[in-house]
Specification:
By secondary structure, the chain is mostly helical. The chain has two domains: 206 residues, Rossmann fold; 92 residues, Tyrosyl-Transfer RNA Synthetase (Orthogonal Bundle), CATH 1.10.240. It has 14 helices and five strands. Helix 4 crosses helix 7 and helix 11 packs across helix 13. The chain starts with a strand and ends with a helix. Bound molecules: tryptophanyl-5'AMP (TYM).
């Protein structure tokens, strides 16, 4: 394992939002200073549910533009498409044979995404965590920055690494990667329901702040965000019982770089409208410049393709080596 290597990924399914930014991409940017980082557009993950090919192509380029607009340096980091490095699919197949049905059956994200009709879900959606383990272990990454919804998949990745090492009697071949989950931003909630996470797949666009939303949209969405009927509370215990208030105050605290306790003090006894006004101002200040950059960067498609091509080559060098070692260990080389 490389002690200071980071790998993480984002599915290029469009509508990248505040949760993706705070829970993941903003941390990617921080980590680039001290780690060797592999940041991947998880396009193979995205096709576990049907994607229109034309839209997928656009979303891949847009997600690359988001990475760069948020501050990832394509020279310093390896930014690439998962599908362009064949080692991901190869190692995922091997992990399909290591991982257990019982382990995958416990994955809550599969249950949520498959909904009531599991029989109709793709096999890929079920096996998705094995592919995610392959993404991480292909580069022997030591750290994986993610939001809380990916924690269970990270645990499965560690189980697969351990079982592989045990099955083939190679004690430390795959070291166990550590998740980096930052508590305050681990789960940004929907603006329409403070008990559900903000999500790309939620039908209502007003449930999330997208990184490409302009000033008016941000203002409208915050204005319409769900609230309850009380004044804002003066202590954390009361706040815990009011998910919408907690979510809005948490987002405000993060951007203001103050503690939740300080935000509670600032708004205690006030109306939601006071918080909403200030929250919209700060979101407009922080998010709209990113949106403008995304639009600008997206215009130069050939530059984005060059970045992904360069990332593919650099990622492949590491990936080929791991695949070679794995083939030797499991007896596929003669
Ligand atoms: P994806 O594309 O759903 O989300 C990308 C990242 O954003 C985080 N995130 C959130 N964080 C806080 N609050 C939210 N409401 C919120 N919504 C999303 C996610 O936790 C994630 O970190 N399976 C992954 C992609 C992936 C991956 C990997 C990640 C594929 N291979 C290997 C790490 C390592 C996914 O679907 O993320």
């Amino acid at each position: 394992m490389s002690k200071n290597r980071v790998l993480s990924g984002v599915q290029p399914t469009g509508n990248l939002h505040l949760g993706n930014y705070l829970g993941a991409i903003r941390n990617f940017v921080k980590l680039q200073k001290d780690y060797e980082c592999f940041y991947m557009l998880a396009d193979l993950h995205s096709i576990t549910v049907f994607q229109d090919p034309k839209i997928l192509r656009e979303n891949i380029l847009e997600t690359a533009a988001v990475f760069i607009a948020c501050g990832l340096d394509p020279k310093k980091n390896i930014i690439f498409c998962q599908s362009s490095v064949s080692g991901h699919a190869e190692l995922a197949w091997i992990f399909n044979c290591v991982s257990r049905m019982g382990w995958l059956n416990r994955m809550t994200q599969f249950k949520e995404k498959a909904g009531s009709n599991k029989e109709k879900a793709s096999v890929g959606l079920f096996a998705y965590p094995n592919l995610m383990a392959a993404d991480i272990l292909l580069y022997k990454a030591s750290h994986v920055p993610v939001g809380e919804d990916q924690k269970q998949h990270l645990e499965l990745c560690r189980d697969i690494a351990l079982k592989f090492n045990n099955d083939f009697n190679k004690k430390d071949f795959f070291a166990l990667p550590e998740p980096i989950i930052i508590k305050e931003v681990a789960r940004i909630m929907s603006l329409k329901d403070g008990t559900k996470k903000m999500s790309k797949s939620e039908e209502s666009d007003s449930s999330r702040i997208n990184l490409t939303d302009d000033e008016n949209l941000i203002e409208q969405k915050i204005k319409k965000a769900k609230t309850d009927s009380g004044m804002l509370p003066d202590n954390l215990n009361d706040l815990e019982k009011r998910p919408e208030a907690k979510n809005l105050l948490s987002i405000y605290s993060i951007f203001k770089k103050i503690s939740l306790q300080q935000s509670i003090q600032e708004f205690s006894g006030k109306n939601f409208s006071d918080l909403k006004d200030k929250l919209s101002d700060i979101l407009i200040k922080e998010i709209t410049p990113i949106g403008k950059k995304i639009k600008e960067i997206k215009k130069d498609r050939s530059k984005l393709k060059d970045i992904l091509m360069d990332g593919k080559e650099r990622a492949n060098q590491v990936a080929r080596q791991t695949i070679k070692e794995v083939h030797e260990i499991i007896g596929l080389t003669l």
